[in-house]
Specification:
Low-confidence stretches: 1-20, 293-299
CATH architecture: Orthogonal Bundle
Distance between the termini: 46 Å
CATH superfamily: MetI-like
Shape: globular
Oligomer: single chain
Structural class: mainly alpha
Order of helices and strands: HHEEHHHHHHHHHHHHHHHHHHHHHHH
Number of strands: 2
Strand content: under 5%
Number of helices: 25
Radius of gyration: 26 Å
Strand order of the largest sheet: 1-2
CATH class: Mainly Alpha
CATH topology: MetI-like fold
Number of domains: 1
């Protein structure tokens, strides 16, 4: 008993020993430097460009840009398409989340897997597939005799067409965030509410919806910010129709060059960034007013019996997936089979010549695959190595500095990709002191990817460290284990599944990225997203469709491999698995 008492008296002193804090502080300092360079410094450089004219502080660029009617027209278009697209995402993703998570429908794993595919497909491929599905030149509709007459307008070349595809593209974001909350709803609590007299709409509005509102708000905010900065869909649908959003206006200004283009583009970038940050701030504001918590662990998840309606609900869900996924991809594949765009597809003229051309004749396709693979794998691995110790210090040693870092890492992801790309151009076109330029190399795309996807890799690891009991680390520290050994032997193995899930999301997202690389690529440094966009923009629609089909097949193959390996991997590694 005396020994136990002495040990209890010694433990607090060991755990509170300043050496551990000093080690954490030194680790934090070493981690802050790269985070500041890749995440914050480009944004500061962007702001500097907008307020300097000829080396003298001036607001002339603000006056010129904000006084131009095209700026506010593009702003209104961006808000309209992003807002309408977010509503569509909320309807589709929310309906799927509630039905998949709360009911007894069958084949849930297959439904979730298929519903996640549109999120992993690049937006430019989504736009290309839907354009090939609709309009008088559709190879699929012409083959079955359902194409509209020649000269008919393309219905997707409109604000509503852009919003529709933005909604489909980002519905998976709402689905993932909301489903995570729905899985935490305990059956016992709902049954208790029913026994207390809550039925139907009252049970929904007073119990289920408040408990799931954080996930619903978070998914809606993420869908809006992502739609606001989406470049692929507005570019492929809006530019042909003369419909400008802020990302496409920035892209067209840069393409036109001019003596004041960088200053004007910087102001436009700050404008769209301010809108995005307002969306994020509103998200945090709404969440702060909705603090609903569950006491204890969830015993059994809620499982609503649909009874005789189950078959009908399942049929509707699969029909929606066929409509938003299978049919557009089928239209894309049929376009890749025609000998020339606009020619009616028949069994006699169907050819795989386009696939042979892009795979074995044109070196740009193989080069783009290699570049995208190297960039995505490199970004995923680098961010995991960076985020594991960073997340530990931010969770275990909270301070004003860690709170500031937690906020700042969201900035590059909240800002549209074109804004981040411009910021990287301004900062790395000529690095001071060492007089080295990264512009025109893969290195600048890699740095932009690190900044863009840092928060995607960081958040799962932070959540994992938050859930780990500090007593594990305290016991190891009491036995004399230093910070490095505690990280290596105890904490990092437990956080590894979450880190792997973040790395997987970074890899799949970066593999098909276009918004950032559209402004940073150069000859020989094309990525897959850039290659598809350039082929379609130059009129090689058949070749663009062939490359897009290959990319989709690669994405589905990669997701299938992770799905099959999910049973052998630790729980939580595959993000779309429960």
């Amino acid at each position: 008993m005396q020994a136990t008492g002495r040990l209890r008296g010694v433990l607090p002193g060991i755990i509170a020993k300043p050496n551990g804090n000093r080690s954490s502080d030194r680790l934090l300092i070493w981690l802050v430097v790269p985070v500041f360079i890749i995440s914050i410094l480009p944004i500061l450089r962007l702001g500097f460009e907008g307020v300097m004219v000829g080396g003298v502080p001036s607001f002339d660029y603000f006056h010129d840009v904000l006084g131009n009617s095209s700026t506010w027209r593009a702003t209104a278009n961006s808000l309209y398409t992003a807002g309408l697209g977010t509503i569509i995402s909320l309807l589709i993703g929310g309906a799927f989340a509630f039905l998949v998570a709360l009911t007894d429908i069958r084949a849930k794993a297959s439904l979730v897997f298929c519903f996640m595919i549109p999120m992993m497909i690049p937006p430019q491929i989504t736009a290309l597939s839907w354009v090939q599905l609709t309009g008088p030149s559709s190879a699929l509709l012409n083959a079955i005799g359902m194409a509209p007459p020649l000269g008919s307008p393309q219905p997707l070349y409109s604000a509503e067409g852009i919003a529709l595809l933005l909604g489909i593209q980002h519905a998976s974001i709402v689905f993932l965030t909301l489903r995570a909350n729905l899985r935490m709803l305990p059956r016992e609590q709902i049954e208790a509410a029913r026994l207390a007299g809550a039925r139907g709409g009252r049970l929904w509005w007073q119990i289920i919806l408040p408990l799931t509102s954080p996930g619903l708000i978070a998914g809606t905010a993420m869908a809006f910010v992502t739609a606001l900065g989406n470049f692929g869909i507005p570019a492929m649908l809006g530019i042909p129709a003369g419909y400008q959003t802020l990302p496409t206006l920035i892209y067209q200004k840069l393409a036109g060059f001019g003596p004041s283009v960088l200053g004007e583009v910087s102001v436009l970038a700050m404008l769209i960034g301010a809108i995005a940050i307002c969306g994020v701030a509103l998200h945090h504001r709404l969440l702060s007013k909705r603090d609903y918590r569950l006491m204890g662990m969830v015993g059994r998840p809620l499982d609503v019996k649909l009874g005789a309606r189950r078959g009908l609900v399942e049929m509707v869900l699969w029909m929606v997936l066929v409509a938003i996924l299978v049919i557009p991809l089928l239209a894309l594949f049929t376009t890749a089979l025609v000998p020339a765009f606009g020619v009616k597809l028949t069994f006699a003229n169907a050819t795989f010549e386009a696939f042979h051309e892009v795979m074995f004749v044109q070196p740009s396709t193989i080069r783009a695959f290699q570049n995208s693979f190297v960039l995505s794998v490199g970004a995923a691995m680098t961010l995991v190595l960076m985020c594991l110790p960073l997340a530990y210090v931010m969770v275990r040693r909270p301070s004003n500095l860690t709170k500031l870092i937690n906020l700042l890492v969201e900035v590059p992801y909240a800002l549209p990709g074109v804004v981040l790309a411009i910021a990287c151009i301004l900062l790395f076109i000529r690095i001071p002191l060492i007089d080295v330029s990264l512009y025109g190399t893969l290195a600048i795309i890699f740095v932009a990817y690190l900044a863009r996807f840092l928060v995607i890799a960081l958040r799962p690891v932070m959540n994992s460290f938050t859930q780990l009991d500090p007593a594990l680390e305290e016991a190891a520290q009491a036995c004399g284990a230093g910070l490095s050994r505690r990280l290596r032997d105890i904490l990092l193995p437990l956080a590894a599944p979450s880190a792997a899930a973040g790395a997987l999301l970074v890899f799949l997202t970066a593999f098909n990225e276009l918004t950032v690389s559209a402004l940073l690529w150069s000859a020989g440094n094309e990525t897959l997203g850039v290659l598809i966009f350039n082929l379609d923009d130059s009129g090689d629609t058949v070749l663009a469709s062939a490359v897009a089909v290959l990319v989709v097949l690669v994405v589905i193959a990669l997701m299938s491999c992770f799905q099959l390996a999910a049973r052998r991997l630790p729980k939580g590694v595959v993000p779309w698995q429960t």
